[in-house]
Every structure is written in C-alpha cells, then in structure tokens.
Amino acid sequence: MTLAHAPSTTRTGYSVCTICDIGCQLRATAVDGRLTEIKPHDSPAVARNICYKGTAAPKIHNHADRLRVPLKRVGERGGDRWEEISYEQAMDEIAERLRAVVDQHGPEALAVSTSGWNTQTTYGFDRRFMNLLGAPNWISGVSLCAGNTAAVNRLTYGWMPFPDIGNASCVVLLGHNPRKHSWTPIYNLIEGARRRGAKTIVVDPRVSDQAERATLHLQIRAGTDAALLLGWTKVIIDEGLYDKDFVRDWCVGFDELSARVDEYPLERVAEITGVKAERIAEAARIYADADGAVIPWTPITDQQLDSTSAIRLQSILRALTGNLDVVGGELLSGVRPDWRSEAELQLHDEISPQQRAKQLGYEKHPVYTYRTAEMLKPHLERVWGEPWVDQVMGCHMANPTEVFRAMADGDPYPVKAFIALGNNTLLSYPNQHQIHRALLNQDLIVAHEIFMTPTAMLADYVLPGDVFSERNHIADAWAWSTRLTLSEAVADPPEQASSTFRFWTDLARRMGLGEHFPWETLEEVLDHRLEPSGRTFAEFRESTVMDVPVPKFRKYRKTGFATPSGKVELSSSILADLGFDPLPYHRPAPAPTEDYPYRVFSGVREDPFFQTGQRNIGVLRRRSPAPQFFIHPDDAAREGLADGQWARLETEHGHVAAKISVQAGMRPGHIRVPHGWWYPETRGSLELAGAFVSSDAVLTIDTDELLDHEQGIPHFKGYPGRLVPCDPPDGMSATTLG
Q: Is 727 among the residues known to form the active site?
C-alpha cells in the first residue's frame, strides 16, 4: 500500500529585504512555509537592485542557529547559559521586572536601542510605548549613520533631502563607496549617471572602487572633510559660482558665512587636508558649474569630531548652488497626506515636557534630541503639516554615550533596564568596554533577535524575532521620501517568534497601556496607516507593488522652508539659540604621534556583512573569512608586516587583532579597519564569542574632548594608532577563521 503525500504549497510575493538598510524590493518564494529562493524584481527598472546578501536570505532565515524559542538566563550575566520558556512566561516576567525598575527609578530608567533592519516591523511602536510610559531614552545606530544627518540637515532647511542621482550631472561621494554588492541601488544609479556623462568627484583617503572611476579623486587625510568643504565654499563664493537669485531670495546668513570661509584660504585647507589647492578649487568648480549636482548621504561625515559642521556644509553647498528641490538636485519630498507616518504613531505629544527634558543628551549634545525637535516643531507643522517629523528615525533620540554613562555609573541618574531590538549594542557604538560595564550594571536586559549575538549573551531574556519574508509590511523609506513599497509574508515564522509590533503590544498591555494598542495584527496597523488614502492593506497589496508619487519641485516658493526664518539658514539660528557656533568650522582631531604614528579610520563595512551581522552565514563568511587591516605597502614594509600576517592595532584606549591586507590604494600613514567583527563559531570557547578580539568599537573612546560638540558624535575617522605583529588570537586556529 502506497501512502499519498500531501502536495507542497508554494507561495511567492514581493519582499523588501531588511538584511541591510537599503530596503530593496525583491521576489521571494517559499515552499511549505519555508523560504527557498530570493530572485531579482520582475521590473527592469529595479531588477539590478540585488546583492549577494539578499540572495543569501534563505540561508539566513533558515539557519540552524536561528533563535526559535524564548530563553531565560541561568547563572551569571554573560555566562551564556539558558533555559527555554514560553513566550507568555517571558513577557509576564519582563513586564514584572520592568515595572519594578520604573517604580523604583522612574520611567527614564528604561533605555531602548534598535538597529531596526533585521527584526523590526513598525518603528513607531517602540517610541509609542516609551512615550506613553514617559521614557525618553531611545537610541539607535542611526545616531552614527544617516539619522543624525537627517537631524542636522533640518537645521539648514527643515528637511533631509533625497538625491536625484538619476538626473544629476555631477555626483559627489564623500568617502562613500557604493558597490555592486553594497548600497547596490545607489551604485546602479551612479553607474547610470556615468553612462549619461555625469561627472563624479570622490573624496577618500583610499583609492576606492568609486575613486578609480571618478572624474576627480581627492585623496584626503581622514577626518578633514569639513575643512575641505569650507575650501569649496570659499571658492564658490569668491568666484561668484553660487546661485545669486536663490541666495538673495531664499537664504539668510550669507555675509556671515562669507566671513567664516575667509578664515580658510585654500593654502590652509590644502595643509589641513593633504590635497593640493588647485585640485580643491577644480572640484569646487565642477560641482558648482554642473547642471544638477548631488551630494548623496555618506556615513563618513556622520562620524567625525566636527560632524555637525561637515554635514551642515553639505547642506549649505546644496543651497548655495541652487540644487535644492530641483530636477537633478536634492529633493525635499515632504510627507504623504494619504499615509500616517511613523512619527504620528509614536505619540510624541504624550510624553510630558518634563520627561522629554530628562532625555540624556538634551542639554549637552542637543541637535538630534527632543530639545531641538521642540524648537523645530512649529516650523515643521507650518511647512509639512506634521509637528514631529521623524526622518530616518533620527530626530528625537537620546545621545548613546550619555545613555551608556548613565547605565554604567548612574550619572546623572540611574538607567537600569535595557531592551535591544535587532541591535548588537555591545559592538555598535564607541567605547565598547564602557558599554560592557553598562550592560553588566542592569537589572533587566531583553534582546529581541534572530541570532544569539554577544549582546544577547548578556541579556536576561532573549526573544526570537521574525524576519522580512515572514511578515506583511509597507516600507516608507523612513520618511526620507514619499515612496511606499509592498512587502509580503510568504514564509511562516517560528511558532514562538514575535514581530516587534507583537512584542511592544503585548508588553504595553501588561504595563497598563493596552488602550493605546488596540490592533491585534500588523495588517490592522497597516490599515490604520493607509486609512487617509481610503485603502486597506489588502487593497494596497492587490493593486500596488511600489507607489512613487510624481515629484513636485521648488515647493518652498509656496511654503517657505521649515526653519525659524522660513529660509535656508546658512547661519543657523537654532544652533545660536542652543549656545553653539551658528556657522560651520573645522575642528582638528588628535594628530598622530611618535608612539601612535598612523591615522586610523574605522566604521567601513565589508560587502558580505551589514554592521555586525551575517558572520555566521557560511555563504557570506567565505567571501570575507577574517577581519583585515588595510595599509599602504610603504607602511607595511616599515613595520615589517606581510600581506596575510596577523597584527595587533593599538590605540591609547584599546587593541584588536586582524590580518594585514597590503593595498597600494591606501593613503600612506593611514589604516582602515572594518566594522563589527566577532566570531560566532567560537561561542562556548571565547568570552562573548570573541566580541573584544577584533571589534573596532574597542579602539574608540568617547570622552568629552573626542565628541562632536553639537551631537555628541564620536570620532571614527583619523584617530592615532600603531601596528604590532602578533600571533593569531588565542582560541582560534587558521582553519577556523577560513
């Protein structure tokens, strides 16, 4: 007798990949609830927007090490010993322990850190819960990457613009190196612009892939971007290359800016940056003379000692050259009237002004905190119709350094409960030793993750999250543009896994906030967000793959800009009111010394990985099996180091180990360090799976003198270091490391 087998069930759909932060829409297939394939989009317009991280999604989502059951710590924190419990028990105990912390120390004693890409669904629900509770200390990796850029751009013209690379005649890349498998859509847009004849200017200490193909490459000293851009601004003003009508009608502070850049003649800028004066002037002229030019967001200027000035200078250059809200320039998209934004879901009016003022960083480093958001609130509402616009999640944050100090030392008040969602916090911010001390000092740590990271190993409870192939979603480009993109559930999550929507809803109901979380499913939330359009999620899904409204240009002619003056503020009134210099400046970083002769720049990631993720995915790890320090051949010869040899990189703050990669394209005297290395394969043999062996966060310190004044951003680009030959780290064989 032959038993009949039930036929397989195959589901396909459009999925927005969240393995990195780009959010490419792909085609996903699942068989019997298990993701089996990720393919390119069926539209030729975006079919090339796929990388090998995206195609590895089945390997990631079905990995043997994926978390599937809630875990409760057994034994000492960090001992990596667990017992399996039910989701209901985990949530009951988390709520009970969080309530105890709040009762003893106040709601400000809760801090939440999120990266958002791997497990996140609706960003608004973490802030919604916190605002209703009265907890202001929300932090994210976007404080170092794009979110802080959004906040700083708003000081100049009230919005974070999106570059129209597809129509630009000039593209400026400040240390940014989009490649076929990293920032893939941006890479494809730049390649398309080149084919149309657009010029590219690359500013980078290394001869990157983009630099090799650039019209002009400025091989700058790491950490001197603000000085270079001050030089560009001076050339553009002195030579009359700015848009005189736009500056006259729509800018304030031009005379003050002109006086400031006079402090930076090209000879001085050349001395600071290591780039010849004539090449600086040539680059400025190419940019200013282009018929449509863009300076796309870059993670490089997000992470410098004068980060606020470097970002502000980009926004100023866009305005001076008339490249704001025009074809081929930088688009001020605004909000969609037919879509409820995440900021609206976040309920920022529910947290009292007194609790907002307790936000860590509010007084000392206020630019992306509630303090500045409160100052911008009436102007955002006047222009965009919403008072609490939260672009790229970066406009109402606490300062991470201040949060970790409070967690570690109780200064200015204790922070005793910490929740990390899709964020390997230990390796994601500077001063890793302080973060470790801060986590050890908590009464409650919850990690919501898909894999057991070093941060999760320090938690009291680890909850398995879902992934993008297992949930319905509409991606809204983090309020950066007005595009809405469909993402469909094709696979089934583990039975005990939860979305972040489910986690926050269930926690809120246990904490007495349930009336503000009335939705039972994520689809109901999407219905709520689509309600102004008259559509439900089911109707959106049936009719729409990607909704991209036709852009409208020069909207400021009707509304003005969302700044106190209603104009582009070349000299920022908000910075002045906060007690900071209203004009951009260059702040020199610590110079190399005899003991630490190299300029180290870290935070640059390798193509197979996003931030600290994917180190356990074989198909990706084989492409980059071990971390590498990239140095110039002359420096390698001076130190007696050979390609592939292990070395220890030391700073005054810490040391890490990696293999040497000798690269002729590196600027002499510089060392490039990749971001986010740990070793999942050493779990059980090395403390926290080797989290302190090769992590760039060990090298950087965040003392006050090494933080950007206005934001409290750490300096990752050009800090002093030295190289020492060493053996492979203990506990790792060459075979283990590939």
A: no
